[in-house]
Design brief:
Blueprint lengths: L1 H43 L10 H12 L5 H12 L7 E3 L19 E3 L1 E4 L13 E4 L3 E5 L4 E9 L7 E10 L6 E10 L4 E5 L12 E8 L4 E11 L3 E13 L2 E5 L21 E3 L3 E6 L9 E6 L3 E5 L13 E7 L2 E6 L2 E3 L11 H8 L9 H18 L10 H12 L5 H12 L8 E3 L10 E6 L2 E7 L11 E5 L2 E2 H9 L7 H11 L8 E6 L2 E6 L18 E4 L3 E5 L5 H13 L2 E5 L25 E6 L9 E5 L14 E6 L6 H11 L4 E4 L12 E2 L5 E3 L4 E2 L16 E2 L4 H6 L3 H12 L4
Parallel strand pairs: 29-30, 30-33, 33-34, 34-38
Antiparallel strand pairs: 1-19, 2-20, 3-4, 3-31, 5-17, 6-11, 6-14, 7-10, 7-12, 8-9, 8-11, 12-13, 12-16, 15-16, 18-19, 21-36, 22-23, 23-24, 24-25, 24-26, 26-27, 28-29, 31-32, 31-37, 35-36
Length: about 750
């Protein structure tokens, strides 16, 4: 009898679990249906009403309404209720049927014009509204804000006397009530070699409070720190108040104040440097003033205010191609759920036709949605927003092996289990990682970037210590790390790598080197080295994720045998220009591009024998239809560089590259590869190029991605391939132990032996 009871209970539990699973699958399916409808209307239905709502909030609100549905009938009813206020001509139904065009056709169309969406890339709801990306609702007037997306108030100091010191910046900040923007403190350290050292802009911990509160930033000045710049940022619309700013350096465990000119803002003028104040303002559409009513200390405080530069512009066609009146998006967006969405509407000076009568009701409902990822609707909304950006505009689906709809299902499902901001960030990262876009990053949580005093790197399939910043550690350069936090190094990195979108192994490894070390300040990392467990404390911002070779500390250097070394990551173009006579007499030139150029691509002109004729490797797609169907074509561009004297291409030139070279660096290298300007040694580059196109998500999350297609100069694929070296070089553990730069050694060898492959 007892066994029968157990079997019965087991049977009941199985039925219960199956029911729960079935219900969850139904929820996911319904959410996917809403996601598809959301993207079609947002980006391709040109009604005036659809341009008057907050589409980010609508994603969350709609997701919340859809997960209440228990049947197809309820989903169809809810979709019609959701979209009717913003797209009165849209129809959702259970069967295909003839569309009634009479309801979107005015009785007398005199004075009406055709209106529709054109997207060159996409700028709708993107953070940057400038070229090359543009979205236009043709023949409709829109108010365009020409303001900067943020403003800064800052002050700069020479930092040489504080080199090697720990610094702290504090300030009291609050936002004016009803401000729609975010506030931040920020601090940047510039190094004498032209690179940036410590940097913190509180990007993951924005200030939103309307009450005065003191905030701080703590960091370190390295041995070549030359300038400290710090202040406050107002992002978006509103007013930000800043008062009682102080800067300190640490000496013998005590904070010593560094004098500031007008740190308490008692001077009556700010925004431009003058005798009484060193605070400088920057940001079109923003003002910088003082307030005598909102101060926390003294008589005044600084105030950054959004003013706006609003211009009303009529949407003019940006390329040839338009959907005809009568064209619809007719698709099955769910199991026996069909949509009919007009792509072209009539519009006059007052409105598009037909006019919605329910928009105000929807807007009231949207006001009830919080902007907090503790709300399941917000998490689901962010996934839906992200899905549609890539679904309709990501230019590399043919180059990557990904089932985007399956990834959508996985990400939506995970939203039900996430609890914290960091959980949600990880879900967003894993959602987009399969796209293999090195420009993809997700920001928004209070994700600490403190690291233990080491660097490490995968070499010869082993995790090798490459730098040690604390002599008291029982670790040496060249040691092998076999376990991290109790699991193998390989398994530890599997989780790290699953959150990184990378086109090539080189960029993946480079990104993982740093992110695998980061964590909260003073948190611990347990590593096993030489069969010994060692506890490392994340007590500083020691690492940038890469080991800097000694030679890379030089902007340039004359090596033996009259070979010049140019570090393109730091050398300025003016310096290269001054060196041209010496370079002209050199036996060979080694150009190090294991990183990112310092605006010095003009050097390419001295390697070209004839003017650049490659004019189509930068390709911005043109869309008028969803799902990237029937792409109109591409706006094609190049750099069109001119050949300049002195010509240096008649001598032996070698470029060193690796996986750190991304984007601008790859544009640079595309000329070297495409015109065969030099011998390339090292490892493949990141395989990611093209202008980034960041966008905002709910809960103060932000995401970046690549919005254009970039190919090699011969038209072949660059994405997820990168620039390939003529001569491959692999680091060795022995080389790391001895401190050798094996890449540089190979470059010198190529010049001395006149080696080409």
């Amino acid at each position: 009898m007892k066994n029968i009871l157990i079997v019965c209970l087991s049977f009941i539990n199985t039925i219960s679990c199956d029911k729960v699973f079935e219900e969850k699958q139904t929820e996911i399916s319904n959410l996917k249906t809403f996601a598809k409808a959301y993207g079609y209307v947002k980006y391709f239905h040109p009604s005036d009403e659809a341009s008057k709502i907050d589409w980010n909030i609508f994603a969350a609100y709609g997701a919340g309404e859809i997960i209440k549905c228990k049947s197809n009938k309820e989903v169809i009813y809810t979709l019609n209720e959701l979209f009717r206020p913003i797209a009165p001509g849209v129809v959702f139904s259970q069967t295909k049927r003839a569309y009634d065009f009479a309801k979107i056709t005015p009785e007398n169309n005199k004075g009406y014009q055709s209106t529709y969406w054109q997207h060159r890339g996409v700028s709708l709801y993107m953070r940057n509204q400038n070229s090359p990306y543009r979205s236009v609702r043709v023949n409709r007037y829109s108010e365009i804000d020409k303001s900067s997306s943020y403003s800064t108030l800052s002050i700069s100091l020479n930092s040489k006397k504080y080199q090697g010191k720990r610094i702290k910046y504090t300030g009291w900040v609050k936002l004016k009530e009803e401000s729609k923007g975010n506030g931040y403190l920020w601090l940047r350290v510039d190094k004498s070699d032209g690179t940036i050292g410590f940097f913190d802009n509180m990007g993951s911990r924005p200030i939103k409070s309307n009450e005065w509160k003191q905030y701080k930033i703590v960091g370190d000045l390295d041995a070549i720190a030359s300038k400290i710049t710090f202040g406050s940022i107002l992002e978006g619309k509103g007013d930000l108040y800043l008062d009682d700013a102080h800067l300190y350096y640490e000496d013998n465990n005590k904070w010593i104040e560094i004098p500031l000119n007008n740190g308490n803002f008692e001077a009556n003028e700010i925004g431009e440097r003058n005798e009484t104040s060193d605070w400088v303002g920057s940001g079109n559409g923003y003002s910088f003033d003082i307030s005598k009513t909102q101060k926390i200390e003294g008589d005044n405080c600084a105030v950054l205010s959004y003013q706006g530069i609003i211009k009303k512009e009529k949407g003019e066609s940006i390329f040839d191609g338009a959907p005809e009146f009568g064209e619809l998006i007719e698709k099955e967006i769910g199991n026996q759920i069909f949509c009919q969405i007009p792509l072209n509407l009539y519009g006059n000076d007052e409105n598009t036709y037909p006019i919605s009568q329910d928009l105000f009701v929807l807007q009231d409902a949207l006001n009830t949605v919080s902007d907090n990822t503790a709300d399941l609707r917000v998490r689901l909304g962010n996934i839906i927003i992200t899905y549609n950006v890539f679904q309709h505009f990501y230019p590399y689906f043919k180059e990557v092996d990904v089932n985007w709809d399956d990834e959508l299902s996985t990400a939506l499902n995970q939203c039900f289990f996430d609890k914290t901001n960091l959980d949600h960030q990880i879900t967003l990262e894993k959602f987009t990682a399969p796209l293999k876009d090195g420009h993809i990053w997700v920001a928004g949580t209070n994700y600490s970037r403190y690291a233990p005093p080491i660097n490490w790197e995968w070499v010869e399939d082993k995790l090798v210590i490459t730098q040690v910043f604390n002599d008291s550690l029982n670790i040496e350069v060249g040691d092998i790390v076999t376990k991290i936090n109790g699991i193998t190094s390989t398994d530890y990195f599997k989780e790290v790598n699953s959150r990184i979108s990378a086109g090539t192994l080189g960029w993946l490894n480079y990104s993982a080197q740093s992110s695998s070390l980061f964590g909260d300040r003073d948190s611990e990392l347990l590593v096993q080295v030489n069969n010994k467990n060692i506890t490392l404390k994340r007590d500083n911002t020691y690492t940038n994720g890469v080991t800097e070779i000694d030679i890379q500390k030089n902007a340039y250097k004359l090596l033996d045998n009259n070979i010049y070394y140019l570090n393109l990551n730091s050398i300025e173009m003016d310096t290269i220009t001054s060196l041209l006579p010496k370079l002209q007499k050199a036996r060979g030139i080694i150009c190090d591009l294991r990183g990112y150029p310092n605006s010095n691509h003009g050097f390419i002109s001295h390697l070209l024998k004839e003017n650049d004729t490659s004019k189509a490797w930068l390709r911005t797609p043109k869309f008028i239809y969803p799902d990237q169907e029937k792409v109109i074509g591409y706006e094609r561009q190049g750099w069109e560089l001119e050949a300049k004297e002195p010509y240096l291409g008649d001598k032996k030139v070698v470029f060193i590259i690796d996986g750190r070279a991304i984007s601008y660096a790859e544009s640079y290298m595309s000329f070297v590869e495409g015109y065969n300007l030099a011998t390339i040694v090292g490892q493949p580059t990141a395989g990611t190029n093209g202008n980034v196109n960041p966008f905002n998500l709910l809960g103060n999350f932000r995401m970046s991605w690549t919005g254009m297609k970039v190919v090699k100069h011969d038209g072949s694929q660059h994405h997820a391939i990168g620039i390939l070296p003529d001569i491959y070089v692999n680091k060795t553990i022995e080389g790391i132990k001895s401190g050798d730069d094996e890449f540089l050694e190979k470059a010198v060898e190529v010049i001395l032996n006149n080696q080409t492959n």
